[in-house]
UniProtKB/TrEMBL annotation:
Keywords: ATP-binding, Nucleotide-binding, Translocase, Transport
Functional description taken from the UniProt entry: Part of the ABC transporter complex HmuTUV involved in hemin import. Responsible for energy coupling to the transport system.
Entry protein name: ABC transporter ATP-binding protein
Keyword Membrane tagged: no
GO molecular function: ATP binding
SUPFAM superfamilies on file: P-loop containing nucleoside triphosphate hydrolases
Source organism, top-level taxon: Bacteria
Organism, scientific name: Marinospirillum insulare
Coiled-coil features, chain-numbered ranges: none
Cited Gene3D superfamilies: P-loop containing nucleotide triphosphate hydrolases
Length: 256
């Protein structure tokens, strides 16, 4: 799906960054873990072709990402940002329909099939009742679910998600990650920046650790979610336990 060749992100003031030689395959869900400022968002923007790397290249479906036209690239990959920018007033349905723009020619209007796809995505995100509301009236969690509905409407092969559970209550966190998991089990790929180790352990097949000093390592989930590596990553003592076969992690703070 995507391959990086000696990729070094452009992070100002960080001369030493590990080069990433990384492969994201169909059916894999990658979690990017790292402390604030370690470069998770920058990496996602770089993978999406929206930020030029310092060096190296990214291949999307075997072709350099720089060679894709914007519309072709948007048919293959979609990105959900941490914050949504709503510069123009629009309804929830009209916003979900933006996910069909990569498939339309200039001035072509959306077909009934496009509208049905957008309505299905809104239903999956439990937003049907809000379809005719202005996006400017949505709560933070509703706006985040709409961003995910746009991605579902877009239906790309590679989903890039910057903290997809941002603003979401516990039910919607699970619903969104289960939906992403379903998409991946149908042959898509996901790369998500996450802060919650337990969600990463539950929903990711692979993990990339980004250390603040510029080191990076990546691999299959069980080999990466090891206490010493995670404690070094977050500069935080952790405890771990297994409940019903699931690995759980907690930050440790001594009782005083
Ligand atoms: N335009 C810029 N100029 C200078 N520094 C920048 C610029 N953009 C980002 N940075 C810095 O690059 C670093 C990486 O930022 P990035 O947003 O990728 O981190 P992150 O791992 O996603 O953080 P968080 O967990 O807080 O969301 C940060 O230290 C940030 O301040």
């Amino acid at each position: 799906m995507m391959q990086t060749e000696d990729l070094i992100m452009h992070l100002p003031g960080r001369p030493k960054l590990d080069a990433l030689n990384w492969q994201i395959q169909a059916g894999q869900s990658w979690g990017i873990l790292g402390p604030n400022g370690s470069g998770k968002t920058t990496l996602l923007l770089t993978l999406a072709g929206l930020k030029a790397p310092r060096s190296g290249q990214i291949l999307l479906a075997g072709q350099p990402i720089t060679g894709y036209k914007t519309q072709q690239r948007a048919q293959k990959l979609g990105l959900v940002f941490q914050q949504q920018q709503d510069d123009f007033p629009a309804t929830v349905l009209a916003t979900a329909l933006m996910g069909r723009h990569p498939y339309l020619r200039s001035w072509q209007t959306e077909s009934q099939a496009d509208i049905s796809l957008a309505q299905q995505a809104l239903a999956q995100m439990e937003l049907t009742a809000l379809a005719n509301r202005s996006i400017q009236t949505l709560s933070g969690g509703e706006r985040q679910r709409l961003a995910l509905a746009v991605l579902l409407t877009q239906n790309p092969d590679l989903l890039l998600l910057d903290e997809p559970t941002n603003h979401l209550d516990l039910h919607h966190q699970m619903a969104v990650l289960e939906l992403i998991h379903q998409q991946v089990s149908k042959g898509k790929s996901a790369v998500m920046a996450l802060h919650d180790l337990n969600l990463a352990a539950r929903f990711c097949s692979h993990i990339l650790l980004l250390y603040p000093d510029g080191q990076a390592c990546w691999g299959e989930k069980n080999s990466m979610l090891q206490l010493p590596a995670l404690e070094k990553l977050y500069h935080q003592r952790l405890i771990t336990t297994q409940v019903e076969g699931q690995q759980l992690f907690f930050p440790y703070s001594p009782l005083v």
